[in-house]
């Protein structure tokens, strides 16, 4: 606990808000406790883990934030196709969802998606193709196919 203020300030210096920094550092401490072994330089280890947690949380917010408005839509018949699409995307395997959302919701290039998800560019292309094919099959009739 002696290094908490130092790590907390460091995460804020990286750009996190007070709440984001507190959550990230707490997650890092939790992970350290699960390690079950003493850390040689706890402030360094905690900082690295906290920044990774903060960045992952920001990434999730960037991906799923734009979709929150779609989830809140009521039963208006004009929104039925959007709700069908959201349900179909949610049914995709995790990697296909990540790639599809990164490409089409966030507008990242294939290279950027590959870098962020730590996969090959060819994997991004193949996964995008598989995901769009799957969506076309599920939504074929409701989207004029």
Distinctive features:
single chain; 145 residues; 2 domains
CATH class of the largest domain: Mainly Alpha
Determine the strand fraction and express it as a percent band. under 5%
* CATH level-four homologous superfamily name of the largest domain: Winged helix-like DNA-binding domain superfamily/Winged helix DNA-binding domain
What low-confidence regions span 5 or more consecutive residues with pLDDT below 50? none
Order of helices and strands: HHHHHHH
The percent of residues in helical segments reads: over 70%
| Rg result | 20 Å
Cα distance spanning the termini: 60 Å
Explain this structure to me?
The chain folds into two domains: 59 residues, no CATH class; 65 residues, Winged helix-like DNA-binding domain superfamily/Winged helix DNA-binding domain (Arc Repressor Mutant, subunit A, Orthogonal Bundle). Helices cover 74% and strands 0% of the residues. The chain has seven helices and no strands. It starts with a helix and ends in a 6-residue tail after the last helix.
Write the layout of secondary structure elements.
Elements: H1 4-13, H2 18-35, H3 42-71, H4 80-90, H5 94-104, H6 110-117, H7 121-139
Helix pairs in contact: 1-2, 1-3, 2-3, 4-7, 5-7, 6-7
Task: Please give a quick description of this structure.
With about 140 residues, the chain is mainly α.
């Amino acid at each position: 606990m002696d290094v908490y203020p130092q790590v907390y300030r460091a995460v804020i210096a990286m750009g996190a808000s007070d709440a984001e920094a507190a959550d990230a550092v707490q997650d890092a401490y939790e992970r350290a406790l699960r390690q079950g072994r003493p850390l040689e330089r706890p402030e360094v280890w905690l900082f690295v883990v906290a920044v990774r947690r903060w960045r992952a949380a920001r990434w999730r917010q960037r991906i799923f934030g734009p979709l929150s408005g779609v989830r809140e839509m009521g039963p208006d018949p004009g929104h039925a196709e959007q709700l069908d699409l959201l349900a179909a995307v949610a049914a995709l395997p995790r990697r296909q969802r990540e790639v599809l959302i990164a490409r089409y919701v966030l507008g990242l290039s294939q290279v950027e998606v590959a870098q962020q998800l730590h996969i090959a560019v060819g994997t991004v292309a193949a996964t995008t193709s598989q995901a769009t094919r799957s969506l076309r099959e599920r939504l074929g009739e409701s989207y004029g196919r």
